[in-house]
Amino acid sequence: MQESCVVVFSGGQDSTTCLYWAKRHFKKILAVTFDYGQRHRIELDCAAKICADFDIPQTVLPLNSFTALGGNSLTDPNQAVEGLGRGHLPDSFVPGRNLVFLTLAAAFAWQRNISDLVTGVCQTDYSGYPDCRLNTMRSLESSISLGMDSLFHIHTPLMHLSKKQSVELAQEVGAFDALAFSHTCYNGVFPPCGKCPACELRAKGFAEAGVADPLMTRAKA
Amino acid sequence: MQESCVVVFSGGQDSTTCLYWAKRHFKKILAVTFDYGQRHRIELDCAAKICADFDIPQTVLPLNSFTALGGNSLTDPNQAVEGLGRGHLPDSFVPGRNLVFLTLAAAFAWQRNISDLVTGVCQTDYSGYPDCRLNTMRSLESSISLGMDSLFHIHTPLMHLSKKQSVELAQEVGAFDALAFSHTCYNGVFPPCGKCPACELRAKGFAEAGVADPLMTRAKA
Q1: What is the mean pLDDT of residues B36-43?
Q2: pTM for the complete prediction?
Q3: In the sheet that A26-35 helps form, which strands lie side by side, from edge to edge?
Q4: Measured between beta carbons, which residues in chain A are less than 8 angstroms from residue B61?
């Protein structure tokens, strides 16, 4: 078992699974959550609750640049989450989001002499976000290692998993109950809207795994 | 002459030189300045004045994450600018600063279909900041190109120049008069403190080039 890691933790399904995965591989875990002006603010409450329940120290880092940049449906309340943006990318694409998240998480880790980072990005069902792909992560690993003169490793336990396999991994690492409090919906509502691309992708995974989503079970309770 | 570029513009000596360099190579220039909680706030006023005088559209992007991270003398008012921080790095090292600046500048450029970025980083007199080096910039160029699925080029006209050569380049591209309004001092004062590492490095360059620093001429006027 390795010493310490920093998990980029949004409070969503994937990063919740990663938080539990990390607990199996590292003695000490620090969670970093970004308050980047996401319109689904409920995600921040979910993240705080999951960390508190799991006894993981959590740091919420503010990041006001993406709201200032605007132009995407995730941080711009005047833009609907549905269509396509530039090129073939979804309108919810925030250019540079994962790059900046991981770079700041690396800075946070660097200050604590930690060299392992964990993120829930996944290229299998990557929703059209190019910064979720393995080649981006490998390149970024080099960039932050060079830029901070310190060797970093970015762990991506979900990279090659389908949404079905992610659900199975959540069961395997004991994250399943916590998923009842994870947040996914881009429209930021509970019960989830069920219609945005994030809700649809989540539902697909649980359907394929043949198990009920604990979040939906809680929503119906 | 190329079409458009985004210059990461701090209002300092190096980025002012780059702004004028860019004007010689690109038809249209957009300047992006980061308000990242730098204690030398005067830099922001200098940046605005230089852009206004040169008729360059400037966007100031807020970035509150580094202040929240703390632990460096550039954004932490309780830490003096003088000694060494972790390892052999100066205490003014903000881990990830240039990586995040360029990634956000790339996001800004991406939104405008611009693929050329210009930054004043320099590895010759790099002040011990690893994120000013060519290998970091080349790697970052790949990371942002992959992460935004769009080919970027990071131009670094000062990369291999000594501070003396930077002064000569400023003369060559017509930036010399503007340097009277550029800001360098890490202690954020005018006239410059003359004692911080940034002031010392600037003075060295002008001394070696054998010309008076227009900023110092203005300070004495």
Answers
A1: 86
A2: 0.93
A3: A58-62, A26-35, A2-8, A116-118, A153-155
A4: 65, 68-69
Length of chain B in residues, anyone?
221
The predicted-structure confidence for A15-60, as pLDDT tens digits, reads as follows 999 999 999 999 999 999 999 988 778 899 999 999 999 999 999 9
- Give chain B positions within 8 Å (CB) of A102: none
Q: Residue B73: pLDDT above 90?
A: no
Alpha carbons within 13 angstroms on the beta-carbon side of residue A217 total: 11
Specify the pLDDT at position A73.
66
Going by C-beta distance under 8 Å and a sequence separation of 6 or more, which residues neighbour residue B77?
Answer: B39
Q: Can you tell me the mean pLDDT for A94-99?
A: 92
A151, burial (CB in 10 Å: exposed 0-12, middle 13-18, buried 19+): exposed
What is the reported pLDDT for A1? Answer: 83
Flag if B143 and A147 touch (Cβ within 8 Å): no
The first and second tokens of residue B83, run together, are 């000694």
- The residue ranges of every structural domain in chain B are 2-220
Contacts of A162 (CB under 8 A, 6+ apart): A124, A125, A205, A208
Q: Which helix (H) or strand (E) holds B110?
A: helix B97-110
From B61, B100, B140, residue closest to A68, measured CB to CB: B61
Of chain A, the percentage scoring pLDDT greater than 90 comes to 74
* Closest by Cβ to A69, choosing from B61, B89, B131: B61
Which residue in B61, B100, B142 is closest to A104 by CB distance?
A: B100
Closest A-chain CA to B132 = A147
Fold classified for A2-220: Rossmann fold (3.40.50)
Q: Write down the ipTM of this complex.
A: 0.92
